[in-house]
Amino acid sequence: MSNAVEANVLPFPNVLGADDCGEQARELQLFRMVEALIFASAEPVSEKALSARLPEGSDVKELLGEVQAAYANRGVNLMRVGDAWAFRTAEDLSFLLQDQAVETRRLSKAALEVLAIIAYHQPVTRAEIEEIRGVVTSKGTLDVLMETAWVRMRGRRKTPGRPVTYGTTPGFLDHFGLEQVRDLPGLEELKGSGLLQSQVPASFAVPVPNDDDDLQDDEDPFTLDDVEELGLLTPGGAGND
């Protein structure tokens, strides 16, 4: 989170500069505060973070709805990204920025396959990815996906060898314009887009992606030993907040 979002907000009466402000002025000020906090952040801002920085008793969900409605027809829109919110260029104006876009890396077919498997099957281990793909997955492929900040290490599977489990990040949602992992296309949508053949085996199924960031019953959190072994800054640095 950017420093601007982490900065303390003055007590509400001081922000307004008057103790007898009407309800309309109060609501306008709350609107402006939400607008400013999200605009100033380099990353999407969670509702929890907003609640911590707004006056006690503020209805964050209602305020976000008002800001989103106010920006609905503007050049930038307020978008939900997972459990957080961010301003993004209106979709119909994205062509204006295409000339400024710089493609720094093109993912290999293997990396795209692994990314899709992680997105739909998370939490998933490297061995489970290889079982689904039917081929060996190199550590380099997973490293590339983690460098893009689209994939993270979640924890350890409670099985012999304690393999690392992988999942997607808020950055993945943000890049692909998703509010939540469950918004990934299902079987019929994949067929309609031409990404799957119209005729698929009767046993073929597309799993419903798991949106739960919390560790599952078959996952252990990272320990201090894992921090050193995996090169993590902190146990939470792999995504176990």
TL;DR?
The chain is of the alpha+beta class and 241 residues long. Helix content is 39%, strand content 12%.
**Number of structural domains:** 2
Q: Give the structural class.
A: alpha+beta
Total of DSSP H or I helical runs spanning 4+ residues: 11
Unreliable runs, pLDDT <50, ≥5 residues? 1-20, 234-241
Coarse shape = globular
Terminal residue distance: 14 Å
Estimated share of beta-strand residues: 5-15%
Q: Can you identify the CATH class of the largest domain?
A: Mainly Alpha
Radius of gyration: 21 Å
Fourth CATH level, the homologous superfamily of the largest domain: Winged helix-like DNA-binding domain superfamily/Winged helix DNA-binding domain
CATH topology-level fold name of the largest domain = Arc Repressor Mutant, subunit A
Reading the helices and strands in chain order gives HHHEHHEEHEHHEEHHEH
How would you describe this structure to a colleague?
The protein folds into 2 domains: 3-94, Winged helix-like DNA-binding domain superfamily/Winged helix DNA-binding domain (Arc Repressor Mutant, subunit A), CATH 1.10.10; 109-238, Arc Repressor Mutant, subunit A. Helix 3 (23-40) packs across helix 5 (60-70) and helix 6 packs across helix 8. The strands form 2 sheets. A 4-stranded antiparallel sheet has the order 4-6-5-7. With 241 residues, the chain is α+β, with helices and mostly antiparallel strands. Residues 1-20 and 234-241 have low confidence and may be disordered. It is built from 11 helices and 7 strands. The chain has helices spanning 3-6, 12-16, 23-40, 47-53, 60-70, 109-121, 126-133, 139-147, 170-175, 187-192, 224-230; strands at residues 45-46, 76-81, 84-89, 124-125, 151-157, 164-168, 219-220.
